[in-house]
Specification:
Elements (H helix, E strand, L loop, with lengths): L2 E3 L7 E3 H10 L7 H16 L19 E4 L2 E9 L4 E8 L4 E2 L2 E2 L4 E12 L2 E4 L3 E4 L4 E2 L2 E2 L4 E8 L9
Length: 164
């Protein structure tokens, strides 16, 4: 029976068969996408928080920040999270043909269409349109035929795109 020496200490040895079984039992699993997104958002929030004595403004250039795919053909770029007011501001990019299922709003959400067009059920929006969904409201699928870029502001964790 062959043995593997650990930490180069002669009194600490482990059987190769046992070490092989241990290695086989440790399987890498894909990270939960929602958990990764929440962690990334918290890290970005910390980075974005003004530090004492720092410049009192936040500027995010168009090429800065990370786009995170939150569902197929829909990406989110967090701009700012105001923990004091519990408000998150972000951009939402929807590719042509993208669809977000009908969902209830757990917080009030404002939406401004920067580019493209968007329909919330029977409500059609285009460039420059503003849409406000009050807390507790529900609307139909959010869909776009040609794609859209939206500015949204809502409560932190307020939009989970839950149906029903």
């Amino acid at each position: 029976m062959s043995k593997t020496n650990l930490n180069n200490e002669s009194d600490q040895v482990i059987d190769e068969e046992v070490s092989g079984l241990i290695a086989e039992s440790i399987k890498a699993e894909p990270a939960d996408r929602e958990r990764v997104d929440r962690l990334r958002s918290r890290i970005m929030d910390r980075i974005a928080e003004p530090k004492p004595g720092c410049h009192p403004f936040l500027t995010i250039r168009a090429e800065e920040g990370d786009w995170i795919e939150i569902m197929p053909h829909v990406s989110k770029k967090v701009l700012h999270v105001d923990r004091d007011r519990n408000v998150e501001s972000y951009l939402l990019r929807m590719s042509p043909g993208a669809n977000i299922p009908a969902h209830a709003h757990h917080t009030t959400e404002l939406c401004y269409v920067i580019e493209g067009e968007l329909s919330f059920g029977d409500i059609d929006l285009s460039v420059g349109d503003y849409h406000l969904a009050f807390k507790g409201s529900q609307h139909g699928d959010a869909s776009t035929r040609h794609g859209a870029l939206l500015f949204l502001q809502t409560g932190v964790g307020g939009e989970r795109y839950e149906t029903g």
